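Tokens as discussed.
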């Protein structure tokens, strides 16, 4: 691991530890830096703000998981990942700032949602509309599931969500 990644990982661990006891809205960049013995200049060299760090943690960990399990369905893998780390990501979702984790999750869901649709038969404008609509629906379901403490196992919720297109097309 190069020095830059080591610094990022230390900052990420510090944020995760702080979020065990404080909401992200109450955590400052100064708190993160103090927790890992770094200065603010080091933080801002790597990240724009604490939300950028939060999304970096998610992208780094989730996409590593995705690469390790490339043969698995990305939706079920995402749900399993969120279920495994539900305390952290449930806490992350409590903050609704414009740069929040919720936006990061929505961006991750867009290509997953697009797989549900037959976009090739639509105009680009219609395809964008349906992709956005499907992404918002998945996002809402997943956020609610996380906030409720993952009442169904990830694999079960994944199967339910994957069946949405066939249920909607049922005559």
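Sequence:
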């Amino acid at each position: 691991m190069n020095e830059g990644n080591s610094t990022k990982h230390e900052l990420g661990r510090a944020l995760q530890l702080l979020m065990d006891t404080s909401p992200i809205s109450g955590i400052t960049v100064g708190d993160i830096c103090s927790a890992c013995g770094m200065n603010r200049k080091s933080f801002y060299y790597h990240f724009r703000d604490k939300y950028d760090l939060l999304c970096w943690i998610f992208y780094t960990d989730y996409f590593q998981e995705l690469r390790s399990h490339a043969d698995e369905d990305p939706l079920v893998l995402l749900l399993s990942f969120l279920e495994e780390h539900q305390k952290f990501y449930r806490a992350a979702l409590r903050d609704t700032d414009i740069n929040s984790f919720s936006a990061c999750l929505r961006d991750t869901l867009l290509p997953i949602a697009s797989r549900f649709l037959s976009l090739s038969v639509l105009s680009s404008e219609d395809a964008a509309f349906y992709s956005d609509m499907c992404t918002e629906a998945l996002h809402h379901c997943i956020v609610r599931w996380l906030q409720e403490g993952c009442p169904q196992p990830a694999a079960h919720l994944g199967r339910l969500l994957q069946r949405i297109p066939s249920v909607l097309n049922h005559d």
